[in-house]
Amino acid sequence: MLDKLFKKKDIAAILREASQSNGGLKRNLTATNLVTLGIGAIVGAGIFVITGQAAAEYAGPALTISFIISAVACVLAGLCYSEFAAMIPVSGSVYSYSYATMGELLAWFIGWTLVLEYLFACSSVAVGWSGYMLSLFDSWGISLPPQIAQSTFYYDNGVWGWTGSLLNLPAVFIVAVVWALLMGGIKQSAAINNVIVIIKISVILLFIGFGLSHIDTSNYTPYIPANTGEAGHFGWSGILRGAGIVFFAFLGFDALSTAAQETRNPQRDMPRGILISLLVCAVLYMLVTTVLTGIVRYDELSVPAPIALAIDRAEGLTWLSPLIKLGAIAGLSSVILVMSLGQSRIYYAIAKDGLLPPVLARVNPRTGIPQNATILASCATGIIAGLFPLQVLNELVSIGTLLAFTIVCVSVVILRRTRPELNRPFKTPFSPYLPLLGAAICVIQMIFLPGAAWVRLIGWTIIGLVIYFLYGIKHSHLR
């Protein structure tokens, strides 16, 4: 029985299966598309939403250190992702890699974790998009009724409650818009994303350039606020918890690997797309965090639209406020676009192996996209974004992301030992040391996440195991 649970897919069979008409998917993505998709996914919630919460509740101005820690871990994980994406250029990301290295049960576990990662990432960013849209409406003198302008539930110090709202309508709206774009095909989605990336990078550079002259250095004191007596709330433990929270901000590069089967030259372009987009975004994050905590004192930043707050506080920069908000709205839209794309490809890859219903593996012959998987991804995202608050979603995404990155790093080490003869167009340098270091940093950040995030991860895992043993194990194509 155990042998069956941990039976592995043959890598040659995976590549052969992917090459046979490419599963219906179309190879439309170039290296430039990959870089802009990576930047489109990464630069969004991390800058426009999460920086405020993480600075106010965990790290203070020292959030820049949190970003450095997360960036180091992401570069190490990115190297491992690049090795796998070039070696096994198929949809499914870590799920497909785990199936070839650790067997079916662990592949299902990580695939289910990826569903959590992308589903809650999309939902979290949609809630952030709603915050910026409402802020923009306010500046125009427009206000939506509270019954349709906030999440249905709130979460405060372990207590759940009803806000009195029916749902967060703007969050649901943007998910529906993104769904309509994705249904047009990946080539159209990539072209729209390219335009959005140019807009939001321009806006971010404007914020950095003009914001530097409005920094009040007294806001950096204390740079590392004293710990409150509770682990994870300021001090060095707060910096580590902040690193775990903002790890979500780097999520985009791993979504790139889900599109490997739709890339023209994945062996060459996947590593370039992952690493270039990651390095560009890491620099932008640290610059924005420095300016943001310099303009507004860190303990005032726990709002859905922190950069909008900073612009409103900076004297003489009110003219920039509408541009910042429009840039944030555009930027967050591209994150939802790429995360939704990644989510649907995970459903598609798992369904192709029989572990989810085959209806999710159907590809539209005209657009070349997994149509039913895209519909499921959008519906699930819209429901969660409309009901739940930002904080809960962020913590779930971070722990799921860290777990996925840990498994990728460990998988590289395992496959180097068990299959040294495989062709590796890109190799992670200094293996096994760098992959193991990446895994260790990810695990440390997971340890410092709130206990509630672990409880939710365990609950999500139990649900996944129930689905696997009731459905997946009986319909697995490998069996």
Overview of this structure, please?
- It is globular, with a radius of gyration of 21 Å.
- The mean pLDDT is 82.
- A hairpin with a 2-residue loop joins β1 and β2.
- It has a two-stranded antiparallel sheet with strand order 1-2.
- The protein has one domain: Amino acid/polyamine transporter I (Up-down Bundle), CATH 1.20.1740.10.
- Helix content is 67%, strand content 2%.
- The N and C termini lie close together (12 Å).
- It is built from 18 helices and two strands.
- The longest helix has 36 residues.
- The protein has 479 residues and is mainly alpha-helical.
Structural class: mainly alpha
What's the helix-strand series?
HHHHHHHEEHHHHHHHHHHH
Cα radius of gyration in angstroms: 21 Å
Number of beta strands: 2
Q: What's the structural domain tally?
A: 1
CATH class: Mainly Alpha
Placed side by side, the strands forming the largest sheet appear as 1-2
Shape summary: globular
CATH architecture: Up-down Bundle
Average pLDDT value? 82
Q: What is the count of helical runs?
A: 18
**For the report, how would you describe the main beta sheet?**
2 strands, antiparallel
The CATH superfamily is Amino acid/polyamine transporter I
Helix content: 55-70%
Terminal-residue CA separation: 12 Å
User: According to CATH, what is the topology?
Assistant: Amino acid/polyamine transporter I
Q: Report strand %.
A: under 5%
Q: Identify low-pLDDT runs.
A: none
